[in-house]
Amino acid sequence: MLTLNRKACWLLGLLPGLLVGYVIGHREELANSSIVDVQERTLRLQSEGLTKLKQELEVKNTQLTTQKIAFEQLQQMLKTQESQLQEQKRQLAFFERIMRPDGEQSGVVVDNLVLETTSIPERIHYRIALTQPSRQRELLRGQVDIRVEGSKEGKPLTLSPRSLGMKEGEVRYALRYFQMLEGVWTLPTGFTPDKVMVRIAKGATQPEQELSVNWSEALRPLPVVASSADSGGANR
Fold this sequence. Notes:
Oligomer: single chain
Order of helices and strands: HHEEEEEEEEEHH
Helix content: 40-55%
Number of strands: 9
């Protein structure tokens, strides 16, 4: 019995040494395990932080997109209102020239030209305003000559009224105050327009008149000042 107790005590005395030896022998492994745990926790926290930042960025982007859309809509609204204001001023000046002629100029004047796009790229709606600035208000008859200058396949090309698809009666006028020549031009496929010229040849009481407008300047959406029927009624 005494021998067993001594063996037990001897074994118990070895345990601390064995434990210390194990720790010393595996200290690198234990240290590496601790580092891995720390790295895993760090990566997890970084991943969570990155996810949060991405979510915040998405929210900010959504807000910025909404603000950008609202700003663009406001800009478009202001642009439309400015365009409408300019058109109203143009119309007012146009009718003032008709109702309050300030000169003794005889004959017909080409006042302005407006072009509008349609659903078909090659088809362009045109509106040519003719006025009589004289106070005499005689009934004047005649016709205009129209030329559209541009290019096709890199070569200069000038289109006549017939080339634009206009009928003979569409270039004639008969007015006392004003008249709108209105219709649709059909441009050749591949044609790039640059300039429009509207000309009235010199006559007995008609001085030569010509209006030359860049295509890009004339091509804008403008409301009709007056229809052909209305102007025809005003001329009779």
